[in-house]
Amino acid sequence: MEQIFWEYDRALHVDGWHTVWTAPPYLQLVNGELANHYDGSVVLPMVRIWDNDEARTHDEDGLHAMRACLRKRGAIDDLFLREELLDQLIVSSSGHLRALLRLLQDAVREVFKQPDPSVPLNEPKVGSILDDYERECRGSVFDDDLPWLGSVAKQRSLRIPNEDLVPRVAKLLDMAVVMTYRSDGAWFDVSHPVRKRL
Prior knowledge:
Blueprint: H1 2-6, H2 9-12, H3 27-30, H4 60-71, H5 83-93, H6 97-113, H7 123-139, H8 146-155, H9 166-174, E1 178-182, E2 186-190, H10 192-195
Antiparallel strand pairs: 1-2
Helix pairs in contact: 5-6, 5-7, 6-7
């Protein structure tokens, strides 16, 4: 990916066209000069579903935005016994829309596996979906990652102690283990499922 945007950047410039390219967020980390080859670059943040405070207070605007996005896909409220169960999926996604859509897909599958698909999902069924998702997320993290991830969760910033760690940090960003948010500047946090392991 770095080669495409760095070594073949001339092929990505089209005379007379304004083009927006999307690239993984870790590219700016592994190559700080990347933006100099283009008119600029910006990392699109996750939807902020908790505030940048110690308690991680739920951000009602972010939760509302995620619910509204899902509701455009259909009558998703009919899938859940209560809205709070949908909110559990949203919080577990950490504001990562692709992860949330995957969780919603799992919920739809679970509904249609039931003898009566008109019965909404209850707490144990949503809990089972979340357990599977969170176990998979935590499985992508090595024990050696935990001290550094703990510092990200505490300080809400990316402080990389040495260059050797850059490839691993890039991978953690790519896997959405480390999340980028924005409010009064960029800040970082560890995804909800992985933070439970810290």
